[in-house]
Amino acid sequence: MAMRDRNEPMAVAPQHVVLGTPMQPPAEILEGLDVAMFGMGCFWGVEKKFWEAPVYTTAAGYTAGSIAHPRYPEVCTGETGHAEVVRIVFDPEKISYEALLKIFWENHDPTQGMRQGNDVGSQYRSGIYTYGDAQLSAARASRDAYAAVLAAAGYGKITTEILRAAEFYFAEDYHQQYLAKNPGGYCALAGTGLTFPA
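RE: above sequence
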């Protein structure tokens, strides 16, 4: 059965259950804020890691695939090509993009290819999805800096894809802030134990 685009976006709660901020900030709030998007494996643990930083809001979702508004069962087949990601809206006066990159590199293993730990499949790949030239340059520079740290510790090559951001599609509402709603829930997020160079 061929999977097709949908016209309707995923319905999600209006407020972030941890931060209390809008899940879909209106344009007037977004002025002065910036957006980042990362894939580091299962988005449950990834979203928690970023909402613990001084950011405005976070959301779990999908990007870099072939259909609009995919559903979780479709993404899990690997046939849509989407990655599980977290979109972060942040105030660069409170946290820099470089600080977000440090969180990204230190909290997963970017050398594992299409997996993170026991989670196997293309949706669990490592990815940085950039907004604008400055983010793209910073992401590439950070990859090169961390590659040297990993190589010195005996790790293989970084497999992280660095792409200009494609459309972000919200994941189902039960995925949003999953580990706040299910404190004992599954979280496979694990870094290499190596520090990103300052």
